[in-house]
Each structure stands twice: as structure tokens, then as C-alpha cells.
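quick one: adenosine-5'-triphosphate bound model?
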Amino acid sequence: MAPVRDPRPIVISGPSGVGKGTLYGLLFQRHPDTFTLSVSHTTRGPRPGEQDGVHYHFVTKDEFLALKEKNGFVENAQFGDNFYGTSKQTIEEQNKKGKTVVLDIEVEGVKQIQAQKYPARYVFIAPPSEEELEKRLRGRGTEKEESIQKRLKQAKVELDYAKTGVHDITIVNDDLETAYKKLEDFIFNSPAQETPN
Ligand SMILES: Nc1ncnc2c1ncn2[C@@H]1O[C@H](COP(=O)(O)OP(=O)(O)OP(=O)(O)O)[C@@H](O)[C@H]1O
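yep, here:
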């Protein structure tokens, strides 16, 4: 397949459990050396087995805030006591290596990237129905009941935001292979944006 013509990162969002990871996992597997998942910065400590620069860029709170002050993040958020963010430098370094960067982020992050008009392409992954989303979340077996309820509530926020029409494409992940083909086609075949002179 021809290389990705559009150099902008692909921002993938959608409710938890809809299949984002499954879809871009297939993309990475079927197009080796083409894509990379953006490595976030975080102030939380590494968990056993997590490597700096691979799973996260582990930084101190001071380092994080300094980078934020310099407008170094395309998006950042605080969860509990910890800060998380995607740095512009991380995206640009991967771009220079010829990789298309994939970002998997929540609605607030999407809004931040859009607010600062950072060049990106926006893909929203939607569930065939709320019932099916709940089934997948439960079927994955990774979440406790409380977490499932929280994710289902947040799903409504994500779906409402998608209805405002801010994404370049919405893909319903019903049949996995069909959804995958739509994602692949969008990434490889949608015309590259003209760069203004
Ligand atoms: N098209 C599909 N049909 C049926 N099941 C699917 C489909 N796509 C993904 N799944 C299953 O749904 C569950 C959730 O998928 P996945 O973990 O990829 O979701 P996610 O959107 O990345 O979630 P999170 O945001 O929480 O990381 C998994 O068990 C996965 O195997």
C-alpha cells in the first residue's frame, strides 16, 4: 500500500470499550513501521515493567509544569494527583522519523487540540448501540462495576460531542473488519490537505 500522504497525526477518540485499541492494533499489525502510538508525559511513578520513553515519559511535576508553561503540550489533563499530556516535541520527533502518530485521547483532549488549531485528523469510533458498548465493556473483563458505570456515563459525553460534527470521520465499529477497512481507507486514501503558501 502507498505511504500515508497526510503527515498530520490521527486523533482517535470514542467511548471506552468501543474498540479503539483493537482497531489501531490491527492498523499497526498490518502496516508495520508506518504508525506509532504517541508516548505521553506523566508525573505518576512507573509501574513494574513500565519503561521511560516506551510506555510514558516519566517526569517530575516541576518538569511537567515548565513544559506546560512553554505551551509544549497539544493536550494535557490531571487525573487525581497526576498530570498527563502529549507533547508537541514527541509528535514532531516521530514525524521526522517518517511515522504517522496515532493519539488515543478523551474528549477534553480532543477539544484542547482543536482549540489551538494544531494540525490533526480526527476519527471518532462509535458503538453500534449503547447496549453493545456495555456488553463489550463487560466482556473485556478488565473493569469493576463502578468503573463500568463511570465509563458508560462518560460514553454519553463522548457521543454527544461527536454529534456536533467536529470529527473528520465517524466509524461505527459494528463488524470489526468492516470498521477496520473504513479506518484504513480514511488514513491512506483521504486527500492530503493543501498546505497554504
Ligand atoms: N467490532 C467489534 N465487535 C465485537 N467486539 C469488539 C469489536 N471491537 C472490539 N471489540 C471488543 O470490545 C472490547 C473493547 O475493545 P478495546 O479494548 O479495543 O476498546 P477501547 O475503545 O480501546 O477501550 P478503552 O478506551 O477503555 O481503552 C474488547 O474486548 C474487544 O475485543
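The domain at 10-189 is CATH 3.40.50.300 (Rossmann fold).
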